[in-house]
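Final report, Chapter 2: Outcomes

The project's central promise was a pipeline that accepts a single protein chain and returns its three-dimensional structure in a standardized token representation, suitable for archiving and comparison. That pipeline is now operational. To close this chapter, we reproduce one record exactly as it appears in the project archive, with the input sequence first and the structure output second.
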Amino acid sequence: MNEQDKAYRFWIHNLPGVGDRTIEKLLLTFGNEKAIYEADEKILNRILDKEKTKKIFEFTAKWDLQGAYGKLLEQKIRFFTRKDKEYPCRLRRLKHPPYGIYCIGNLPQETTPAAAIIGARECSEYGSFVARAFAGKLASAQITVISGMARGIDGIAQQSAVHAGGTTFAVLGCGVDVCYPASNKGLYDQIISAGGGILSVFPPGTMPQKRNFPERNRIVAGLSDVLLVVEARQKSGTWITVDMALDQGKNIYAVPGRLTDRLSDGCNLLIRQGAGIALSPEDLIREIEVLANRKEVAALEEVPTLNPVPAKQQDDLLSFLDFAPHTADEILQKMKQHGKEISLQQLLPELIMLCMKGQAKQEAGYYMKIETSF
């Protein structure tokens, strides 16, 4: 991967009115970001509406391809897309992984257990105490703390993780170069200096907007193995993160509170609906250790064996590949949509066999056809 490729990727991720789905659509047609950059207006009009195409060309005419990416590096901001091996594996497993993620500092370690701690912005003394206690103990146990660096429970938990000598990562609903809220600037700096990172799926310079926070919450859930709700009202933004974590198959835990305390209504309701009861940091740590062990066993069970595969079956699989890169999960979903019932454990060895035969290739977890000359 060279820096020129990164410059094209940074350009496409900054295009006005172009989201992840549109980028995927363009990549399926052109194969790579450079080809999209070099495409003429007439060709793009066949794929996008004229108004969007016009805005892309107006934006590109003013965009300094190398200068913009150079400025990004000067700010010590790194940008990773799904084509980069550093792109978080936890995000790859999402139903719709974000095209890219920006980072100041470091990315979470894939082999380190991670817990998201979230809750009310206007928290009580009880909530503040519990957030500090749980985050501090988790961090001391080498469990990464993920949150959104918001006022209240989020920021308190991350501050406690830093003080305990642990690692924490803040996912923002704005650019990584924008500290939000501004009152957490000290925490922002401490997270980076303590070996953690400031993360965002929004380009640098993006200001915090209400519409950005559901996606921020999805990434918080995506980067964690478990989600802990410390304090939340029955109707609050916390529920967005909870719903997204449930959709991702994550385990939810809640800290119980007094029946008369409105800030505990959300947690008590979650427990009634089946969430785990977080009675002590030690209990949660043991639960996380169990989950980590299960993941290790599952990873071993998913190691593909290279058994012979019939030629016709290989040809059939090849028809589901194209010259644009796709993950094994994406290929699997495409096959299922066409009535092909196959498991991931069956698919992986077949993909590897195609690569060994020189009919396909794998790059950073993506599979694609190999172009042949006629």
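Archive annotation: Residues 176 and 366 are 27 Å apart (CA to CA).
This record, like all others produced under the grant, will remain available to the consortium after the project formally closes.
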